[in-house]
Design brief:
By secondary structure, the protein is an all-alpha fold. It has a domain of about 35 residues. The protein is built from 5 helices and no strands.
Length: about 130
């Protein structure tokens, strides 16, 4: 004959069951987070280029972790890719995104050039 559980035993049983389920979900989440941290650059570059050149992202992948991360990145970049519109409209948007980088690189290059021209040191010939 089975003995019925008291309310405290039921609570303790539910508590341990929920802790066990939380541990499983946490380990799965940590694995996915570790994968995303390890491959973040590759995934972002892949999603940006695929959204720029094809207009949509390919979420079909060979491994479940890759498809999960690809889906995650696609969701994050979804508003970006949907705002791109046609390819004709993307060139001005891409240029406006790259323009600050080009300006900062050109300013650094000009500073180096001016520094070399007006520095008192002469290079020794070897």
């Amino acid at each position: 004959m089975e003995r019925k559980m008291t309310p405290i035993e039921k609570l303790n049983y539910n508590k341990t069951r929920i802790r066990h389920e939380c541990d499983i979900v946490e380990s799965r989440f940590n694995g996915n987070l570790h994968y995303l941290q390890k491959n973040a650059g590759k995934l972002v570059i892949h999603e940006v280029t695929s959204s720029l050149f094809s207009g949509k992202s390919s979420t079909a992948s060979s491994s479940p972790a890759t498809s999960l991360s690809s889906t995650f990145i696609h969701t994050v970049l979804g508003s970006f890719s949907s705002s791109l519109g046609t390819k004709k409209d993307t060139l001005p948007m891409v240029f406006s995104m790259i323009q600050p980088l080009l300006v900062s690189w050109s300013i650094k290059g000009i500073k180096k050039l001016i520094g070399r021209l007006f520095s008192g040191r002469k290079k020794k010939k070897q």
